[in-house]
Design goal:
There is one protein chain. Helix content is 29%, strand content 18%. By secondary structure, it is an alpha/beta fold. It has an 11-stranded mixed sheet with strand order 1-8-2-3-7-4-6-5-9-10-11, sandwiched between helices. Strands 14-13-15-12-16 form a 5-stranded parallel sheet, sandwiched between helices. α6 links the parallel β10 (193-196) and β11 (213-214). The longest helix is centred in the C-terminal third of the chain and has 17 residues, at 287-303. Bound molecules: adenosine monophosphate (AMP) and magnesium ion.
């Protein structure tokens, strides 16, 4: 599935959104912005269209997709039960970077959910995404709009670089606001389980749910969320996370890096690195700034043809937990402790 004609919608208006919706309705695949990262969307009720997403991304078939709806009122068409806790959660985070896993109805094709009897659903907090779903008049299944395994796309240029010739259309929505994927929360178990950390923090969910478990680790034999077993978000370069007191981390990285290496750090330490290939992801005191920049930094290192990246372990709260989850996966859990 290479070299199909990709329409590039640089200007977003009613006309280009309606044309994009027509492509979705006709069984095509369209990359579009959300507040988290760009998604590669298809009609969630059309198994042939869904198949195209897996082919274009090179995504393993056992990694299920999230379906995107534009209004909570349509949810009961696709899921068997709506737990009472969802009332409060949806008031706060739908639209928002929260995906909930619920028991699916038969109308959702099996290839959307990789054969599971549950389906992941969210409402994106982005006008372009919401209108596209509304005009398509169907839920849109969409994983991140990158080639499988690569850093998720947070800018239009990232999507064009990965999917030009593979997607039917790409919509330009500028840089995505959050820059990291949604939190995936399983509501089918007695105690809700966070399957993937993301835009809504553990602390925020704990305030509403009182009881909430976490199940994200890289190496579990049988991951609860099928996507967790794959290498993810990875730049071309090898990546190593360096963890310890700030002075020790700076000294160690300066000691072991050479001209083929790069440093991913925060604004506060940037000047202390001797490397010519260094990028700051933002201030250590602003986890949201760092979250919005990390995938872009990883892609910049690829363009710079870097062979090895040394990355600081960012000790941060809130979305910071999701940041480190992504960076550790990008580094295949490769950590040096100093
Ligand atoms: P992505 O589409 O790349 O943002 O990844 C979607 C994530 O949601 C992956 O980690 C999937 O494994 C997870 N997911 C989607 N559907 C389900 C489901 N029914 N049960 C558990 N996890 C799911
Ligand atoms: Mg993804």
């Amino acid at each position: 599935m290479n070299n199909i004609k990709t329409r590039l919608f640089n200007t977003v208006n009613e006309e280009s959104l309606k044309e994009s919706a027509d492509i979705i309705k006709g069984g095509g695949i369209v990359a579009f912005p959300t507040e988290t990262v760009y998604g590669l969307g298809a009609d969630a009720l059309n198994p042939n269209a869904i198949e195209k997403i897996f082919l274009a991304k090179g995504r393993p078939n056992d990694n299920p997709l999230i379906i995107h709806i534009h209004n909570i009122s349509v949810l009961d068409k696709y899921v068997k039960e709506i737990p009472s806790v969802l009332t409060m959660l949806s008031k706060l985070y739908m639209p928002g970077p929260l995906t909930v896993v619920l028991k699916k109805k038969d109308i959702i094709p099996n290839n959307v959910t990789a054969g599971l009897d549950t389906v992941a659903v969210r409402i994106p907090d982005n006008e372009i995404a919401l209108k596209l779903i509304e005009y398509s008049n169907t839920p849109i299944a969409a994983p991140s709009a990158n080639i499988s395994g690569r850093p998720s796309p947070t800018m239009y240029e990232h999507v064009v670089s990965d999917l030009f010739g593979k997607a039917d259309a790409i919509i330009n929505g500028g840089k995505t606001r959050i820059g990291l994927e949604s939190t995936v929360l399983d509501l089918t178990t007695e105690i809700p389980v966070i399957l993937r950390p993301g835009g809504v923090s553990y602390e925020s969910l704990k305030l509403i749910l009182t009881d909430v478990e976490t199940a994200y680790s890289f190496d579990t034999e049988k991951p609860k969320s099928p996507g967790m077993k794959y290498k993810h978000y990875a730049p071309i370069a090898d990546m190593v996370i360096v963890k310890g007191k700030t002075d020790d981390v700076v000294r160690k990285i300066n000691e072991i890096s050479d001209e083929d290496c790069a440093v991913l750090c925060c604004k506060e330490t940037y000047e202390r690195y001797i490397s010519n290939n260094k990028l700051s992801a933002g201030s250590i005191n602003d986890p949201f700034e760092i979250a919005s920049n990390i995938f872009q930094c990883l892609r910049l290192f690829d363009q710079m043809k870097i062979k090895k990246i040394f990355c600081e372990y960012f000790e941060m709260k809130d979305i910071g937990e999701a940041v480190m989850n992504r960076l550790l996966k990008a580094a295949s859990q490769n950590i040096i402790k100093v």
